[in-house]
Amino acid sequence: MHYLPTRIFFADGALQAASVYLPALGKRALLVTGQHSALASGAQADLLMVLNTMQIGYVLYNQVEENPTLETVMSGAKIYQENACDFIIAIGGGSPIDAAKAMSLVVANHLSQEQIYQPALYKTNVPVVAIPTTSGTGTEVTPYAVLTDAAQHKKAGFGSELAYPAISILDPRYTISMSESVTLHTGIDALSHLLEGIYSNKRNALFYPIIFEGIRLIITHLKQAISHPDDLAARTALMHASLYGGLAIAHTSTTLQHSIGYPLTSIYGVPHGLANGIVMQSMMELYYPAVKQELDALFAFLELTKNEFYAWLDSLQMDARLSLSEEFIFCKIPEVISSRNMANNPFEVSAQQIRELYKSLNR
Ligand code: NAP
Ligand code: FE
Prior knowledge:
alpha/beta, about 50% helix
């Protein structure tokens, strides 16, 4: 079954095209952002002009941090309720957009913080408009939000059809202000999603054309976007790839590749995409026997060998300079094994394999 209830606008100036759909969402929006990117990208200024023209009021919540916490979701939800908002607009990378998706479910279903991870309690939502400023997560078209439980030092996602944004506005110009490192890490996150669309036991050949093309776009354009940040053609290619990755994982979910990275982020602060990147090669070796036919077809499409792909990954010089403690490995293996994504692996992954993967990351 394939389901995507999101209206997707993708163009330079996509916001203008989407704006006619905003008045139907309500009279006042909660605008959810981080502290810097909504302004730096130019998206917030464009949006405020549109809201003004459409006579839609707004209240700003600009406190979403990287890897948003449950507390942040509750704070935003409180502001939404205090100001009697009708819908939510999120501008930013995956962090503000995921926080907004969770806020929508909290306010619509009167959830407490403890109930956020209980999709069975979600009966409805309030509309979310997503305006990405990174090309990575694809969250603008997925039914997931990834949050951090700060008290438990645990990062985990939830999924619900009610978490799909109502409208997603993709304008590659909003990604030009990304730094070199954010461009690299988010591009690798998108690559990870595309590969996981092949690894997952929910994989479906329907998505292979966009998965293969998305991977080709990243290999062709990622370095150019890093070295020439204002190359709009490269930025557009990466935004397409990120969208394709989102469309793929919306239907296949992510896998061990993501589960193994979450503790690296929650404990060692490794940026999300980098956490995926440093395990990408070992993960492909692990999955290769199970999906050999699919990966061979991918490499034929790319006109690359697997080793040439690894050489390209190596040339990105991703290194999180980790020294993982025995205690970390001991404590986090059960968390990885019990994570939602583990059900999507095409074969059983043992605690010993996860242990070896973590140990291989030590420098
Ligand atoms: P992010 O955490 O939203 O942002 C990373 C950093 O980049 C922040 O400092 C942010 O600034 C900055 N930034 C973002 N856009 C920028 C721009 N255009 N110009 C300048 N700076 C910019 O990064 P992300 O990689 O997009 O999102 C990662 C989160 O999404 C993780 O929590 C991850 O687990 C989650 N994720 C979700 C899904 C899903 O389907 N729901 C899939 C994959 C990953 P500000 O703080 O000012 O915004
Ligand atoms: Fe991701």
